[in-house]
Amino acid sequence: MTVDPAFTAAVLADAAVAFRVFAETGALTAAATLSFVVRAPDGRTLVEVKHPDRFQPDAAPRAVLTSLDPAPGEPRPVCDGVRYAEVFRAHPRVGAISHVHAPYLAAWAQTHLPLPLRYVPVQRHTLADHVPVYLDRREGEDAFIVRLLRADPEHFAILEANGGATVWSSGGLLDLARTILLLEEAAQAQALAAPLGGSRDFGPGVLAQQWSFFGLDQTPRARTRLTTTAATHPLPPA
């Protein structure tokens, strides 16, 4: 199992950027639980990078490789590459997965409630309308995600009940890091809105406008939701 050293170096460099941005924006809890698993160009090898232990500040992040086609009896590292291998196998479009404990996503995870997507910067990129909760750990997390995506391929994240969140992307590490940052921002905005009366669903025209930026407004699923929104917000009489 080998990966082009240039690719591994690029993953490590991208991870360093993500770690710095998350630290600067307060997007990590104190223990800094954060890992990225990225699919290598061969499609069958995974490269994992974890945030360094805060009590080992001089330790450099390192890349851990995992094969999706291990040889019989091959030792398997204890890492998130193994943890999410079944998701990568079942969904070739998945390019990267992250497990993260961000303050507001972790707070939502404590409630065991799904996170509705009511924040424009997140919703404009997806047709999913909520982030579901992974509650029953008698089912493996990877099996839960595979089952979730089989039922609805638009999902891109789950809340890990009483823990953090797992987020995935068809892009690379930095694309995924941006998604996590926006999702944490959404959780924060909606949590801060709660004592003010709570967040509300989108008003008329918002989804059509936002989805049109990325061509999502013409998909059957988008048209169904837009029709429902229009019925809820009829045009005023002329």
Summary, kept brief:
With 238 residues, this protein is of the alpha+beta class.
Radius of gyration: 19 Å
Helix content: 40-55%
Tell me the series of helices and strands, N- to C-terminal. HEEEHHEHEHEEHEEHHH
Q: Ends: how far apart? A: 68 Å
Structure description:
With 238 residues, the protein is of the alpha+beta class. The protein has nine helices and nine strands. It folds into two domains: 192 residues, L-fuculose-1-phosphate Aldolase; 38 residues, no CATH class.
List the helices and strands and how they pair.
Elements: H1 5-25, E1 34-39, E2 45-50, E3 63-67, H2 80-83, H3 85-90, E4 96-100, H4 103-111, E5 115-116, H5 120-123, E6 130-131, E7 133-134, H6 141-151, E8 157-160, E9 165-169, H7 173-193, H8 206-212, H9 220-232
Parallel strand pairs: 7-8
Antiparallel strand pairs: 1-2, 1-4, 2-3, 4-9, 5-6, 8-9
Helix pairs in contact: 1-7, 4-7
